[in-house]
Write a structure and sequence with these properties.
The chain has helices at about 25-40, 55-70, 80-85, 105-110; strands spanning about 45-50, 70-75, 90-95, 95-100. It is α+β, with helices and mostly antiparallel strands. The strands form two sheets. The protein has a two-stranded parallel sheet with strand order 1-2. Strands 3-4 form a two-stranded antiparallel sheet.
Length: about 110
């Protein structure tokens, strides 16, 4: 099967993705969903584990592109790469904010706590 990268040299727009994208990997589906959201030129985007199916190298590139194009990103994540690029971090437990602060403060508290 050919991935979205177009390994066979064909046009990526001609790739058969299957019913509801089932022929795609999880990472490919995530990149398509993010691409569709970015195409709307929105000023706020809400992401829930947006790069969970990405390898670390691709994750960094994807997150950088999202950050360049969207002024306000609200992300729900457990992944360090996304936490590290945050301006503010809120830790939620059982529906309540139990900790908040600037990225460096929250990261320091998590490590020492």
């Amino acid at each position: 099967m050919q991935g979205l990268a177009g390994e066979s040299g064909g046009n990526v727009l001609d790739v058969i993705v299957g019913v509801q994208g089932r022929a795609l990997s999880g990472g490919e589906r995530q990149r398509i969903a993010l691409g569709r959201a970015l195409a709307r030129h929105t000023s706020v985007i809400v992401l829930d584990e947006p790069t969970s199916s990405q390898d670390p190298s691709r994750e960094a590139r994807v997150l950088e592109q999202v950050r360049r194009r969207v002024p306000t990103i609200i992300a729900i994540t457990h992944r360090e790469a996304l936490l590290e690029m945050a301006d503010r971090v809120y830790q939620v437990d059982k529906g309540r904010v139990v900790e908040s602060g600037a990225r460096r403060q929250a990261a320091t508290t998590r490590q020492s706590g």
